[in-house]
Amino acid sequence: MTEPLDKIHITVGNITQLSVDAIVNAANESLLGGGGVDNAIHIAAGPKLLEFNKTLGGCPTGLAKISPAFELERQGISHIIHTVGPVWHGDETASLANTHEDVLLASCYHQTLTIAQQHKIKTLAFPAISTGMYHFPKDRAAKIAFGHVLDFLTHHDYPHEVTFCCFNQEDAAVYQEIIDTRMQWMYNRKRICPA
Question: What is the C-alpha separation between 76 and 94, in angstroms, rounded?
Fold first, then answer.
């Protein structure tokens, strides 16, 4: 049986070029396109994505909606899950999960993973939601993302694998440090409390 931690991967690159069943779009509430990852996904998926998303009626912050991948289906991506992350206005000194933005970002991951489970999506790729133009602190966002993904994979059959697709090596290092810390904690726990 595969450990949940082994189902999580990190890569650097363009999320629209990954070989996964579905990608996550860090969208705005209109779902009609924007900047950054949102723009790249709309360009890669083609104009039919915009036409389809007009029928969805937008999406509140913290929630998620699914669409076909249109032009991206040629490379094996079948769906795009659009989620709207929060704009950071919080206090970076507040403990994790104690700001409204933390709760909304956690909801983005939970809602997206729930949709992936409902559609039996095996492989899913996330960008670093809210860490670009929305200015969510990267380390804080990565801890929320990793924690919720790991918990979901521990308790559900789908998705089988999740990839965090980072913009650059520096961002990937943030995720890697969180994973390494978790692995060290698990190793120490097994040494202290062997099965």
Answer: 41
